[in-house]
Fold this protein.
Amino acid sequence: MIETGKTGLSARNRNILVQVLNVNPEWLETGHGEMFNAEPDLTAYMRRTDNSLPMQSVPLYSIEGTAGLVPLFADQSQNKPINYIHIPNLPKCDGAIYIVGDSMYPLLKSGDIVLYKQLHDLEDIFWGDMYLLSIDIEGEEYVTVKYIQKSDREGYVKLVSQNPHHADKEVEMKRIRAIALVKASIRMNSIR
């Protein structure tokens, strides 16, 4: 719709194009100059190890049954999966859960499944990628799926939704209790 002129480019989507895809802001605004900045920072991508496996059994967990991400990540061997997902040539995944909510709509919708790889160190975040997060909000666990971007504030990250009805939110890194990189998603369509 942006390409056909039916809608304008939102500030959030403009930032994603510039920061994540390395699009030249001048080209984006005027159509002049090079489309991409000369030297993209590929450091995060060079450290990735997305070697696909010919076949794996990815456990599908019920987040309600495990009482949240923190207990699930702490000891997956004690949590019984509700099923297993078998997809050929998928990067190594630690597990999968159902999505609840619409913050990543239309990319993800409530009832879809995300397959994840747990992170053990916040220093390993790939800026701009999608993550499954457990955030401490006044002692309660809040589980969400968001893009994570760098924040201008020291010790904070910016959580960005796909859904334009959800505002970006800055969160203190020390409030992140569990985090996993979203490696794949499965769209669940309902036929009536």
